[in-house]
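Hello forum,

I keep getting stuck at the same step: I have a sequence, I want structure tokens, and every attempt I make locally crashes halfway through. Rather than fight my setup again tonight, could one of you with a working pipeline run this one for me? It's a single chain of 214 residues.
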Amino acid sequence: LFDADGTARFKYVVEGANLFFTQDARLRLEKAGVHLFKDASANKGGVTSSSLEVLAALSLTDDEFGRLMCKQSDGSLPAFYQEYVAGVQNAIEANAAREFECLWNESKATGKSKSVLSDDLSVAIVELRKNLESTTLWDNVALRHLIMREALPARLLKEIGLDTILARVPLNYLKAIFGAYLASHFVYEYGTSPSQFAFFEFMSRYYAKADTAV
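Reply #2:
Ran it on my machine without issues. Output:
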């Protein structure tokens, strides 16, 4: 990774495996001028894809899942499956772009290592999601429907509709999706150290959209 004179041989490093580097190694590389994106950020696509696979299984009946998500007897893949996978890939790419922009901007603004900020982002999102679980945001039906339509895969919504998904999927799982969507979008937009008024400003846009949709 370094030349004989101690110069880093690479300008960018993206970890493609979990625990590829130790944290000390990451910090040393970044100190040498390397832009390093650690596993916690680079591999979030795996979490997204597995969670959306579980969501499909919870949302569809056994017959629907076999018809829409499984290879057919002739060896073909259902059109729904192919479109669903494409939607998952698009979601992963969009989330990766948000993560990158947030890390890049936070690092420039604070001077912090991207490796440290990656952990800070994850903690901020998880903590906010937990805090949102104790609020009454979910009880606002118009807001709930708005957020879930934005958070859930469009192809699944088109196939069975929001009401069916809300009726079939366990409440705790739905609330987790609701909270994770709001928490991640807020942190990606406002960073890890937002002002005390930032969340009010963030939510006011959703309330306005929810009121318009009613």
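The radius of gyration is 20 Å. If your local run keeps crashing, start a new thread with the error log.
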